[in-house]
Amino acid sequence: MAEQKNLGYSDTPLIPGTQWHVHDGNRPQPPVVQPGTASTPDSPGQPPSDAVILFDGSDLSKWESAKGGDAGWSVENGVMQVVPKTGDIQTKERFGDCQLHLEWAAPAEVKGESQGRGNSGVFMMGRYEIQVLDCYQNPTYPDGTTGAIYGQHPPLVNACRKPGEWQTYDIMWEAPQWDGDQLKKPARVTVLLNGVVLHHAIEPQGPTGHRNVSSYEKPHDPTGPLRLQDHGDLVRYRNIWYRPLKGYDQG
Ligand code: MG
Question: What is the C-alpha to C-alpha distance for residues 129 and 147, in angstroms, rounded to an integer?
Protein backbone atom coordinates (compact mmCIF):
# COMPACT_ATOMS: atom_id res chain seq x y z
CA MET A 1 0.00 0.00 0.00
CA ALA A 2 1.35 3.39 -0.90
CA GLU A 3 2.36 5.48 2.04
CA GLN A 4 -0.11 8.26 2.84
CA LYS A 5 1.50 11.50 1.75
CA ASN A 6 1.47 14.15 4.40
CA LEU A 7 -0.06 17.03 2.49
CA GLY A 8 -0.35 19.58 5.25
CA TYR A 9 -0.08 20.41 8.91
CA SER A 10 -1.81 19.35 12.11
CA ASP A 11 0.24 21.43 14.56
CA THR A 12 -1.34 24.66 13.36
CA PRO A 13 -4.29 26.51 14.98
CA LEU A 14 -7.87 25.57 14.16
CA ILE A 15 -9.59 27.80 11.60
CA PRO A 16 -12.35 29.50 13.64
CA GLY A 17 -15.79 27.98 13.05
CA THR A 18 -14.37 24.79 11.52
CA GLN A 19 -12.93 21.52 12.70
CA TRP A 20 -9.91 21.99 10.43
CA HIS A 21 -6.41 23.16 11.17
CA VAL A 22 -4.79 25.85 9.04
CA HIS A 23 -3.34 23.94 6.03
CA ASP A 24 -4.97 20.73 7.32
CA GLY A 25 -4.02 17.89 4.97
CA ASN A 26 -6.96 15.79 6.21
CA ARG A 27 -9.57 18.32 5.17
CA PRO A 28 -11.80 16.88 2.37
CA GLN A 29 -10.39 17.47 -1.09
CA PRO A 30 -12.56 19.70 -3.31
CA PRO A 31 -14.44 17.48 -5.78
CA VAL A 32 -13.01 17.44 -9.28
CA VAL A 33 -15.16 19.09 -11.95
CA GLN A 34 -14.29 18.99 -15.63
CA PRO A 35 -14.81 22.61 -16.73
CA GLY A 36 -16.93 23.37 -19.77
CA THR A 37 -16.19 25.69 -22.65
CA ALA A 38 -17.33 29.21 -23.44
CA SER A 39 -19.95 29.79 -26.10
CA THR A 40 -19.13 31.36 -29.44
CA PRO A 41 -21.46 33.28 -31.76
CA ASP A 42 -22.04 30.07 -33.72
CA SER A 43 -22.28 27.48 -30.99
CA PRO A 44 -23.35 27.17 -27.38
CA GLY A 45 -20.78 26.48 -24.71
CA GLN A 46 -20.19 23.05 -23.17
CA PRO A 47 -21.50 22.67 -19.58
CA PRO A 48 -19.14 21.60 -16.79
CA SER A 49 -19.22 17.89 -15.92
CA ASP A 50 -21.40 18.19 -12.81
CA ALA A 51 -24.05 20.47 -14.35
CA VAL A 52 -27.73 19.57 -14.34
CA ILE A 53 -28.82 20.14 -17.93
CA LEU A 54 -32.15 21.94 -18.34
CA PHE A 55 -31.99 22.52 -22.08
CA ASP A 56 -29.39 21.00 -24.40
CA GLY A 57 -31.04 22.04 -27.65
CA SER A 58 -32.95 18.84 -28.33
CA ASP A 59 -36.41 19.27 -26.80
CA LEU A 60 -38.52 20.76 -24.00
CA SER A 61 -38.86 17.51 -22.05
CA LYS A 62 -37.53 19.20 -18.91
CA TRP A 63 -40.08 22.04 -19.25
CA GLU A 64 -43.78 22.65 -18.80
CA SER A 65 -46.17 25.55 -19.22
CA ALA A 66 -46.23 27.74 -16.10
CA LYS A 67 -50.05 27.50 -16.37
CA GLY A 68 -49.88 23.69 -16.42
CA GLY A 69 -49.63 21.32 -19.40
CA ASP A 70 -46.98 21.17 -22.07
CA ALA A 71 -44.53 23.99 -22.77
CA GLY A 72 -45.73 25.81 -25.89
CA TRP A 73 -42.45 27.25 -27.15
CA SER A 74 -40.72 26.06 -30.32
CA VAL A 75 -37.40 24.22 -30.65
CA GLU A 76 -35.37 24.37 -33.83
CA ASN A 77 -31.68 23.99 -34.63
CA GLY A 78 -30.76 23.56 -30.96
CA VAL A 79 -32.56 26.71 -29.90
CA MET A 80 -35.85 27.33 -28.10
CA GLN A 81 -37.93 30.37 -28.94
CA VAL A 82 -40.88 32.10 -27.33
CA VAL A 83 -44.15 31.43 -29.11
CA PRO A 84 -46.14 34.54 -28.19
CA LYS A 85 -49.33 34.00 -26.22
CA THR A 86 -48.41 30.43 -25.23
CA GLY A 87 -47.30 31.80 -21.87
CA ASP A 88 -44.29 31.44 -19.60
CA ILE A 89 -42.53 28.11 -19.38
CA GLN A 90 -40.81 26.63 -16.35
CA THR A 91 -38.63 23.67 -15.48
CA LYS A 92 -40.28 20.59 -14.03
CA GLU A 93 -37.34 20.45 -11.67
CA ARG A 94 -37.34 22.62 -8.53
CA PHE A 95 -34.10 23.88 -7.04
CA GLY A 96 -32.72 26.53 -4.70
CA ASP A 97 -29.14 27.75 -4.29
CA CYS A 98 -27.38 27.43 -7.61
CA GLN A 99 -25.03 28.62 -10.30
CA LEU A 100 -27.22 29.08 -13.36
CA HIS A 101 -25.99 29.52 -16.92
CA LEU A 102 -28.09 30.34 -19.94
CA GLU A 103 -27.66 31.97 -23.32
CA TRP A 104 -30.25 34.17 -24.98
CA ALA A 105 -30.71 36.35 -28.03
CA ALA A 106 -33.13 39.18 -28.71
CA PRO A 107 -34.78 39.19 -32.16
CA ALA A 108 -32.40 40.39 -34.90
CA GLU A 109 -35.26 42.33 -36.42
CA VAL A 110 -35.62 45.38 -34.19
CA LYS A 111 -39.23 46.18 -33.32
CA GLY A 112 -40.70 48.32 -30.58
CA GLU A 113 -38.95 50.39 -27.98
CA SER A 114 -38.31 50.56 -24.25
CA GLN A 115 -39.98 47.53 -22.58
CA GLY A 116 -41.50 46.53 -25.93
CA ARG A 117 -38.21 45.44 -27.55
CA GLY A 118 -37.02 41.86 -27.07
CA ASN A 119 -38.61 41.47 -23.66
CA SER A 120 -38.49 38.18 -21.77
CA GLY A 121 -37.22 37.31 -18.33
CA VAL A 122 -35.44 34.78 -16.18
CA PHE A 123 -37.41 34.12 -12.98
CA MET A 124 -35.33 32.48 -10.28
CA MET A 125 -37.48 30.08 -8.21
CA GLY A 126 -40.34 31.15 -10.52
CA ARG A 127 -40.60 34.49 -8.66
CA TYR A 128 -37.55 36.74 -8.88
CA GLU A 129 -37.09 38.27 -12.33
CA ILE A 130 -33.74 39.06 -13.85
CA GLN A 131 -34.81 41.08 -16.85
CA VAL A 132 -34.19 39.95 -20.41
CA LEU A 133 -34.61 42.86 -22.83
CA ASP A 134 -32.93 44.25 -25.92
CA CYS A 135 -31.27 47.31 -24.36
CA TYR A 136 -28.77 47.87 -27.16
CA GLN A 137 -29.36 51.54 -27.92
CA ASN A 138 -32.80 51.20 -26.38
CA PRO A 139 -33.25 53.21 -23.19
CA THR A 140 -35.97 52.24 -20.74
CA TYR A 141 -36.59 52.80 -17.03
CA PRO A 142 -33.31 51.78 -15.36
CA ASP A 143 -34.75 49.14 -13.04
CA GLY A 144 -36.18 47.44 -16.12
CA THR A 145 -32.90 47.40 -18.09
CA THR A 146 -31.38 44.11 -19.24
CA GLY A 147 -30.15 42.29 -16.16
CA ALA A 148 -32.12 44.43 -13.72
CA ILE A 149 -33.60 42.80 -10.65
CA TYR A 150 -36.84 44.01 -12.12
CA GLY A 151 -38.38 46.95 -10.29
CA GLN A 152 -35.63 46.97 -7.64
CA HIS A 153 -32.01 47.16 -8.75
CA PRO A 154 -30.86 48.47 -12.14
CA PRO A 155 -27.77 46.66 -13.43
CA LEU A 156 -24.44 48.30 -12.56
CA VAL A 157 -23.76 48.63 -16.29
CA ASN A 158 -25.44 47.99 -19.63
CA ALA A 159 -23.36 45.20 -21.20
CA CYS A 160 -25.78 44.30 -24.01
CA ARG A 161 -24.67 42.88 -27.31
CA LYS A 162 -26.48 43.80 -30.51
CA PRO A 163 -29.93 42.31 -31.17
CA GLY A 164 -29.68 38.86 -32.73
CA GLU A 165 -26.31 38.15 -31.08
CA TRP A 166 -26.03 35.48 -28.40
CA GLN A 167 -25.54 36.72 -24.87
CA THR A 168 -24.73 34.83 -21.67
CA TYR A 169 -26.13 35.03 -18.17
CA ASP A 170 -24.20 33.52 -15.29
CA ILE A 171 -26.19 33.83 -12.10
CA MET A 172 -25.18 32.82 -8.58
CA TRP A 173 -28.34 32.50 -6.52
CA GLU A 174 -29.04 31.95 -2.83
CA ALA A 175 -32.64 31.22 -1.88
CA PRO A 176 -34.32 33.22 0.89
CA GLN A 177 -34.96 31.42 4.17
CA TRP A 178 -37.75 31.77 6.72
CA ASP A 179 -38.18 30.54 10.24
CA GLY A 180 -41.95 30.07 10.33
CA ASP A 181 -43.26 33.44 9.15
CA GLN A 182 -40.09 35.27 10.11
CA LEU A 183 -37.56 36.02 7.38
CA LYS A 184 -34.22 34.53 8.41
CA LYS A 185 -32.20 35.44 5.34
CA PRO A 186 -33.20 37.30 2.16
CA ALA A 187 -32.27 35.96 -1.26
CA ARG A 188 -28.84 36.96 -2.52
CA VAL A 189 -27.71 37.12 -6.14
CA THR A 190 -24.70 37.81 -8.31
CA VAL A 191 -25.32 38.29 -12.04
CA LEU A 192 -22.88 38.42 -14.96
CA LEU A 193 -24.02 39.39 -18.46
CA ASN A 194 -21.51 38.47 -21.14
CA GLY A 195 -18.87 38.06 -18.40
CA VAL A 196 -19.51 41.54 -16.97
CA VAL A 197 -20.77 41.92 -13.38
CA LEU A 198 -24.24 43.49 -13.19
CA HIS A 199 -24.91 42.71 -9.52
CA HIS A 200 -22.56 41.44 -6.87
CA ALA A 201 -24.09 39.61 -3.89
CA ILE A 202 -27.07 41.92 -3.61
CA GLU A 203 -30.29 41.10 -1.76
CA PRO A 204 -33.54 41.35 -3.73
CA GLN A 205 -36.28 42.96 -1.64
CA GLY A 206 -38.74 40.17 -2.37
CA PRO A 207 -40.42 38.45 -5.33
CA THR A 208 -40.87 40.54 -8.48
CA GLY A 209 -43.93 42.68 -8.90
CA HIS A 210 -45.04 45.44 -11.27
CA ARG A 211 -45.51 49.01 -10.08
CA ASN A 212 -45.31 48.00 -6.45
CA VAL A 213 -42.79 47.55 -3.65
CA SER A 214 -41.88 43.97 -2.94
CA SER A 215 -41.38 42.20 0.38
CA TYR A 216 -40.72 38.79 1.91
CA GLU A 217 -44.03 38.92 3.78
CA LYS A 218 -45.21 35.58 2.43
CA PRO A 219 -42.84 32.63 2.96
CA HIS A 220 -42.50 30.28 -0.02
CA ASP A 221 -40.96 26.89 -0.69
CA PRO A 222 -37.18 26.58 -0.32
CA THR A 223 -36.97 25.47 -3.96
CA GLY A 224 -38.74 26.53 -7.14
CA PRO A 225 -38.64 26.17 -10.91
CA LEU A 226 -36.65 28.28 -13.33
CA ARG A 227 -39.28 30.23 -15.26
CA LEU A 228 -38.79 32.00 -18.59
CA GLN A 229 -41.15 34.77 -19.61
CA ASP A 230 -43.35 35.04 -22.68
CA HIS A 231 -43.65 38.81 -23.06
CA GLY A 232 -44.79 38.48 -26.67
CA ASP A 233 -41.35 38.91 -28.25
CA LEU A 234 -39.41 36.29 -30.24
CA VAL A 235 -36.57 35.84 -27.74
CA ARG A 236 -34.43 32.70 -28.11
CA TYR A 237 -32.61 30.60 -25.49
CA ARG A 238 -29.98 27.86 -25.60
CA ASN A 239 -27.56 25.96 -23.35
CA ILE A 240 -29.37 26.17 -20.01
CA TRP A 241 -27.88 24.39 -17.00
CA TYR A 242 -27.29 24.80 -13.30
CA ARG A 243 -25.06 23.46 -10.58
CA PRO A 244 -26.42 23.22 -7.05
CA LEU A 245 -24.35 25.52 -4.82
CA LYS A 246 -23.10 23.57 -1.83
CA GLY A 247 -21.09 24.64 1.16
CA TYR A 248 -17.39 23.98 1.77
CA ASP A 249 -16.23 20.44 2.56
CA GLN A 250 -19.53 18.93 1.40
CA GLY A 251 -18.13 16.93 -1.52
MG1 MG B 1 -39.34 40.79 -18.70
Answer: 9
Range of the domain at 239: 52-244
> Which residues have CB less than 5 Å away from ligand 1 (the ion)?
119, 121, 229
Find the 88 Cα to ligand 1 centroid distance in Å: 11
pLDDT tens-digit map of 132-173: 999 999 999 999 999 999 999 999 999 999 999 999 999 999
Q: What percent of the chain has pLDDT over 70?
A: 98
Ligand 1 centroid to Cα of residue 229, in Å, is 6
Considering the domain boundaries, does residue 37 fall inside one? no
CATH of the domain at 197: 2.60.120.560
**Alpha carbon of 120 to those of 88, 104, 147, 200, 208: distances in Å?**
9, 10, 11, 22, 14
Distance, CA 185 to ligand 1 centroid (Å)? 26
